[in-house]
Automatic annotation (TrEMBL):
It comes from Pseudoalteromonas aurantia 208. This is SSD domain-containing protein. The chain crosses the membrane at residues 7-26, 320-343, 350-370, 376-397, 429-450, 456-479, 507-524, 836-855, 862-882, 894-913, 934-953, 965-987. It holds the Pfam family ACR_tran. Keywords: Membrane, Transmembrane, Transmembrane helix. InterPro entries: AcrB_DN_DC_subdom, Acrflvin-R, SSD. The keyword Repeat does not apply. The keyword Transmembrane helix applies. Residues 315-478 form the SSD domain. It comes from the Bacteria. The lineage of its organism: Bacteria, Pseudomonadati, Pseudomonadota, Gammaproteobacteria, Alteromonadales.
Length: 1010
């Protein structure tokens, strides 16, 4: 193939790839972060026992079984009255759907062993930050009517959207089949409560009874239906089968279809609303799913009421990614401006600049093949790579124009000029790839978070090399080959200054000593002063306030009255920061979710919140809530565990510690498990003397069990199961009716006990007690835990902080040794950072081997790798100067600087070797290398600095995510470039390395060109 055909072929291939990549860009999945392959599954069971008795009989066993599942690493159980929720953490790279199936399998196994009348277990993915959450204010209907309409019309549409895991539509009251048993009728007809319940359970609608195995159809599931379709059928359920007329349910109970006050009430700024929640599958395209959900809701629910967005992942992703895209384009235009200013030739600048969009577009093809989507890290990688793309283009253009500075050249000479610089360009690109590629295969957390960024950078580097070596020369040959470039006169002043400096051995020595001292100080001292974290999270625009209700059984109006003072205080004192307040009011507690006007208001609002809420008691807590947060645990600075054998002592220690920690000025946030709030309850106790006398000759255990169940149904309606009627699908609730206007009235409920007709007050007494609402356990062991996050603006000595806490506790509890264990909460963070350090060391070693192979001398390899220290030193100093954190993204900046500084050194030493090969004196060879490489070096690094400056400054939603990365690269590269320009020429003048054999093949052509 002749040169003209090659030129046309290279241009055509590049244009085709550019168009394909541009088209595929709009097909890539969009999210805020890369998908984290570490699933969490929530498994819920329901029970009708006391919390502790259920834990002893079932909970402990269930937790240990779940912990033994393949891939399970941790099981946390939270037990409340009637319900337990297990959150099962799985190991890295376990497929979410497999984890869910395993949890469901164990759930089904234990559900089969629990009493059949209990509601079925629930299993779901646990990710509390990715759901689409909307509120609808009814315009045409009451809230409960609107909720029912949406459940019938909207919910099926939402469930049909690809990627939806589960949905919720709730609000207002709910309808139920209410069966109120008349206790006097039971006694009159000599019927026990157990007879009524047994009859109802026999008529449970649609119950699985087994599997039929046939020779023709195989295994077929069988379900039993009893034919109940309306209230009349329920009223006709026979209670007894006595000869003659059977006793029907209607004769001992009143059966009605009634509306029940919902156990959750939702308000948007004091207006009752219906809430819609949609949770995605872990691997779903969350951006497009959230968009589809909004569209379906607007079409179906929009005409019925006003729609308010409470949590919209699409909106946050849009804002965060828009900021990165803006930063990317600002970087590209800034790079173009820098190139134009330095080169002062529009045509040359245009050739360099067009490589950026072409390279980025073609890299989209690699992203599609590698399964990398559009997210804040992959887009950040594009911004980071701009300088590297420009650098490769500058090297090629400089080499070609340098050839043409002497005379008009032929196509063959231009190709030869490109070929001469090809080894060093491949070497510099290969070293950068070696730096980033190990990230893909590093520790699971590192790989999961940074994999996309590493793959994008590697892809862009490879595409950039192709564009520089094949497309740019082709364009140059096609459009610019006839142009004459007048030679540039070297700066005499520059040569004089550099010559004097490099000839002064004392001055060079002092400069080296000062640089070495600076590097040692930064590397040994500053890292101990920098805060560590996994990855920076964006500032929250939402703050959750948690308030427990001290009394049980409050009406909705009572709950609203209890919340009103807090809402009023928030609006009076912090109203300028508040957009609206969303209330999620439940049986025992409420969440006030405060949505801020902007993330910019967060610091002022959160800093004042402690003072505002201090007037409402210690049980009112608060924490930031981040939409679309990275699914990595927000590790606290300290974690305390209390492990006394006595639960009450552990709770007291936890409570005192929490109160003390919460009041410290250095405390940013604190969290307790289990929650410490309590219920004020009435406890029924048997009158043992009377009961023992009545039960003489009776089955003691059976009678006591019957009485206990009778008391349960007297206290409140109890759901037996759900039943399908013509009117719909309803819970069926049973209670023993009586005048319940007071406790005394409840105690006057009649009961048949041991063959005698008595009142409850005859066999029981009442006493007021306080009981804990929650009980927590981890892997089958009771857990009492306090997590503490410190304010990053305050320097806290952990040991002194713990010592002060222990001193307070010893005074309160009069104990020399506290049953308290302090856990290093940053273990995973430190392990991840250590893994990244290992990756960094491995990358440096691989770079050294490649450079040693390419240049052939130890001195050359050492000189080149010395620049790595400059990059790491600059990054660490930058992080410290701008009060950033040592995290995965800031350490990634160090890796990037390794690649950039090595590239600078390789190309600088390459020119030095070429000059030395021509017999130049060492000082002149160094000056010549600087003169030839200085412009491209400054343009390249200035381009990278300008491109990363928007990330370093940070603006918009999600700015904190990549800010540490921007700081470490921007400031670190400036420091590293300065040190490289000053120190590397000194080392070259001292060491005078021998000419590398890798360039021997091109020396003859170099002698002509250079």
């Amino acid at each position: 193939m002749d040169d003209k055909l090659k030129t046309r072929f290279n241009i055509s291939v590049t244009v085709i790839l550019f168009l394909i990549g541009l088209n595929w860009f709009f097909q890539l999945p969009i999210s805020l972060y890369p998908t984290i392959s570490k699933p969490s599954i929530q498994l819920s069971f329901y029970y009708d026992q006391d919390v502790h008795s259920f834990y002893q009989e079932w909970g402990n066993k269930i937790e240990r079984s779940l912990r033994d599942m393949d891939g399970a690493t941790e099981v946390d159980g939270t037990y409340k009255n009637g319900q337990v929720k297990y959150v099962i953490q799985f190991d890295w790279y376990i497929k979410p759907e497999i984890a869910k199936k395993e949890a469901a399998r164990f759930g089904a196994m234990y559900q089969a062993q629990l009493p059949k009348h209990l509601p079925s277990y629930k299993v779901a993915y646990y990710d509390p930050t990715s759901e689409s959450y909307l509120a609808i204010k009814a315009n045409k209907y009451e809230v409960d009517q609107l909720a029912k309409i949406l459940q019938q019309t909207l919910e099926p549409q939402l469930k049909a959207i690809k990627g939806v895991s589960r949905t919720m539509i709730a609000g207002g009251s709910t309808e139920m089949v209410n069966i109120q048993i008349n206790p006097f009728a039971l006694i009159e007809n000599n019927v026990k409560l157990q007879d009524v319940l047994s009859a109802l359970r026999q008529y449970r609608y649609d119950e699985a009874v087994g599997v039929l195995e046939s020779s023709s159809e195989g295994k077929v599931n069988i379900r039993l239906t009893q034919g109940i379709s309306n209230l009349a059928d329920i009223r006709a359920v026979p209670i007894t089968a006595n000869p003659g007329k059977p006793l029907l349910l209607a004769e001992v109970a009143e059966i009605q279809l009634i509306k029940e006050q919902g156990n959750r009430l939702f308000q948007y700024d004091d207006i009752s609303v219906v809430v819609i929640g949609v949770w995605p599958e872990p691997d779903a395209n969350q951006y497009w799913l959230a968009k589809q959900v909004k569209e379906v809701i607007e079409v179906t629910a929009g005409p019925l009421g006003d729609v308010f967005s409470l949590n919209d992942p699409q909106e946050f992703v849009d804002a965060a990614i828009l900021n990165i895209v803006v930063s990317l384009f600002v970087g590209m235009f800034s790079a173009a401006f820098v190139v134009l200013v330095v080169y002062r030739r529009f045509s040359t600048s245009l050739l360099i600049v067009i490589t950026m969009p072409i390279t980025l577009s073609i890299s989209i093809i690699a992203m599609q093949v590698l399964g990398v989507g559009i997210n804040i890290l992959s887009l950040g990688a594009m911004g980071i790579s701009i300088g590297m793309v420009v650098d490769n283009a500058i090297v090629i253009i400089d080499r070609i124009t340098h050839s043409q500075n002497k005379a008009l050249t032929s196509e063959k000479e231009i190709i030869e000029a490109v070929r001469s610089v090809k080894p060093s360009l491949i070497s510099s690109t290969l070293t950068s790839i070696i730096v980033f590629l190990p990230l893909v295969f590093s520790a699971p957390m590192i790989s999961a978070i940074l994999r996309d960024m590493a793959l994008v950078i590697v892809s862009i580097l490879c595409v950039s090399l192709f564009i520089s070596l094949y497309f740019l020369p082709a364009i140059f040959l096609a459009f610019a080959k006839k142009r004459h470039f007048s030679p540039k006169k070297p700066s005499v002043r520059f040569e004089q200054v550099m010559s004097q400096f490099l000839s002064n051995k004392t001055l060079k020595t002092w400069v080296l000593v000062l640089v070495i001292f600076y590097i040692l100080y930064v590397l040994m001292r500053i890292p101990t002063l920098i805060e560590r974290e996994v990855i920076a999270q964006p500032k929250a625009e939402i703050v959750d306030i948690f308030m427990p209700f001290t009394a049980s059984g409050l009406s909705n109006s009572d709950k609203l009255a209890a919340l009103a003072p807090i809402k009023s205080a928030l609006r009076d004192e912090l109203g300028q920061h508040i957009k609206y307040i969303y209330s999620d009011i439940r049986d025992e507690y409420a969440y006030l979710t405060v949505h801020l006007v902007s993330y910019r208001n967060f610091d002022a609002f959160y800093g004042s919140l402690k003072h505002v809420l201090s007037a409402f008691g210690e049980d009112v807590t608060y924490s930031p809530w981040i939409t679309g947060a990275l699914k990595i645990e927000d590790h606290p600075d300290l974690t305390l565990y209390f492990n006394h054998d006595n639960e009450h002592i552990n709770r007291d220690l936890l409570k005192k510690s929490y109160q003390w920690v919460k009041d410290r000025p250095s405390t940013y946030r604190s969290d307790v498990t289990p929650r410490l709030f309590k219920n004020n309850e009435l406890e029924l106790n048997l009158r043992n003397n009377l009961v023992d006398r009545l039960l003489v000759g009776q089955n003691y255990n059976s009678e006591i069990a019957d009485l206990t169940e009778y008391l349960k149904f007297t206290a409140s309606p109890f759901t037996l199961y759900k039943i399908k009627l013509d009117e719909g699908f309803f819970p069926l609730k049973v209670s023993i009716s009586n005048n319940k206007s007071s406790v005394e009235a409840i105690l006057q409920t009649p009961v048949q006990f041991a063959g005698k007709n008595v009142f409850l007050q005859d066999v029981t007494t009442l006493s007021a007690v306080e009981t804990a609402k929650e009980f927590a356990s981890r892997d089958g062991r009771a857990m009492f835990r306090l997590k503490i996050w410190f304010d990053k603006a305050v320097q806290v000595d952990n040991q002194k902080f713990i010592a002060a806490l222990e001193s307070m506790l010893k005074t309160e509890f009069d104990q020399d040794v506290l049953p308290m264990r302090v856990e290093n909460s940053k273990t995973e963070v430190e392990q991840s950072l250590q893994s990244l350090k290992t990756t960094l060391v491995f990358s440096i070693l691989m770079v050294f081997i490649i450079v040693l192979y390419q240049f052939g001398t130890m001195r050359s390899a050492l000189m080149i790798c010395t620049a790595i220290l400059f990059g790491i030193t600059g990054a660490i100093h930058a992080i410290y100067l701008f009060d950033s954190t040592l995290s995965l993204n800031s350490m990634l900046g160090m890796l990037i600087l390794v690649g950039l500084t090595v590239n600078n050194s390789i190309l600088l030493l390459d020119f030095f070797n070429r000059n030395s090969a021509q017999g130049m004196v060492t000082v002149l060879a160094v000056i010549g290398a600087l003169r030839n490489r200085f412009r491209s070096l400054i343009v390249t690094n200035l381009t990278t600095i300008v491109a990363m400056l928007p990330l370093a400054i940070g603006y918009g939603a999600g700015k904190e995510i990549l800010k540490p990365l921007g700081i470490s690269i921007t400031v670190g590269l400036f420091i590293a470039t300065t040190l490289t320009i000053v120190v590397l020429p000194i080392l070259m003048s001292f060491m005078a390395p021998k000419v590398s054999t890798v360039f021997s093949e091109t020396r003859q052509s170099n002698n002509k060109v250079c």
